[in-house]
């Protein structure tokens, strides 16, 4: 006899710990993003040199990403997550303590990014192991927590910038929250991955694009589809961080608002991402992955157009929010596609994805900053739709041979079956 049992997500104390740790992670990421235009003014930097802070973030992420497997094996997930949070706090504190000294701020951005990546990747892995079939739902909720927390961070930076304390005071927030979280939940353990899990069989992916072979195959070659998926992931991440690091500058130039007030532009983008992440799981049950991904790219491009053309704050905020709604689905869907076409070599694909993401984070904002120095920020922001267009082309070419499927099963049919 076959019973139908819904997949349930049980949020225990360790789950809430990871959610909150990733919420603190958001205060670092969106805080340093919103602070970059103000930091550039304080240091008197060109836009290209200011973009090196994004490059430093990328280098930090690559270095710690390469070290993560060995570090986890040596000290365990629980220690890795808290070590990452401590290092992330130290990096942001360094930026706040030496805001006019370029080598210190570059180092601070790099340390914060690298150590924060330890917390993020380890936290996501623990959620996936902890919740099994409900792992994707837990990861989606964790990402939603990140962007919801991130909405308020640019406002904190903006308010601090207009106060006697200065914008640097806002960068102490990750340190304060890390200490508070350690005091109240430090005894809750981040789950360790069972040793048997590494050697266990790899189940087929249920969220892959239709027609893509997802069966295990360690001997499989990472071929053309994988390379195209990697290009799509690169373009999506680069476009997202161009918004994160440079939207406030274009917002200020086009609307005439002060850089301190314009820092809130990142909040509009983040609010759109929060809405997109919250709706994304529901939409993915009803729309084929390629169709949904294509729609998300087009929504982001439309939002960019509204933002790029506008000189009124209200329309600029609206354009950024709409861009955020589309961008919200880019990274998770691009990563899912990359894993789906890896021929079962998901560990290798995940490592490559980490490197692609870090390189895109560093290269995209730096190129945009260099273009801004030569042609102005508005012209330079044409890089964003170029990246979105390249991602769309890569997606459509890479999925041309997939079996057609235009719908997902309804939520009522998304069940686990057991005898």
Automatic annotation (TrEMBL):
<feature type="transmembrane region" description="Helical">
    <location>
        <begin position="228"/>
        <end position="248"/>
    </location>
</feature>
<feature type="transmembrane region" description="Helical">
    <location>
        <begin position="80"/>
        <end position="101"/>
    </location>
</feature>
<feature type="domain" description="Major facilitator superfamily (MFS) profile">
    <location>
        <begin position="7"/>
        <end position="403"/>
    </location>
</feature>
<feature type="transmembrane region" description="Helical">
    <location>
        <begin position="16"/>
        <end position="36"/>
    </location>
</feature>
<keyword id="KW-1133">Transmembrane helix</keyword>
<keyword id="KW-0812">Transmembrane</keyword>
<dbReference type="InterPro" id="IPR036259">
    <property type="entry name" value="MFS_trans_sf"/>
</dbReference>
<dbReference type="InterPro" id="IPR011701">
    <property type="entry name" value="MFS"/>
</dbReference>
<feature type="transmembrane region" description="Helical">
    <location>
        <begin position="107"/>
        <end position="127"/>
    </location>
</feature>
<feature type="transmembrane region" description="Helical">
    <location>
        <begin position="347"/>
        <end position="368"/>
    </location>
</feature>
<feature type="transmembrane region" description="Helical">
    <location>
        <begin position="380"/>
        <end position="406"/>
    </location>
</feature>
<feature type="transmembrane region" description="Helical">
    <location>
        <begin position="315"/>
        <end position="335"/>
    </location>
</feature>
<feature type="transmembrane region" description="Helical">
    <location>
        <begin position="48"/>
        <end position="68"/>
    </location>
</feature>
<feature type="transmembrane region" description="Helical">
    <location>
        <begin position="260"/>
        <end position="279"/>
    </location>
</feature>
<feature type="transmembrane region" description="Helical">
    <location>
        <begin position="139"/>
        <end position="161"/>
    </location>
</feature>
<dbReference type="Pfam" id="PF07690">
    <property type="entry name" value="MFS_1"/>
</dbReference>
<dbReference type="InterPro" id="IPR020846">
    <property type="entry name" value="MFS_dom"/>
</dbReference>
<protein>
    <recommendedName>
        <fullName>Major facilitator superfamily (MFS) profile domain-containing protein</fullName>
    </recommendedName>
</protein>
<feature type="transmembrane region" description="Helical">
    <location>
        <begin position="167"/>
        <end position="185"/>
    </location>
</feature>
<keyword id="KW-0472">Membrane</keyword>
<feature type="transmembrane region" description="Helical">
    <location>
        <begin position="291"/>
        <end position="309"/>
    </location>
</feature>
<dbReference type="InterPro" id="IPR051788">
    <property type="entry name" value="MFS_Transporter"/>
</dbReference>
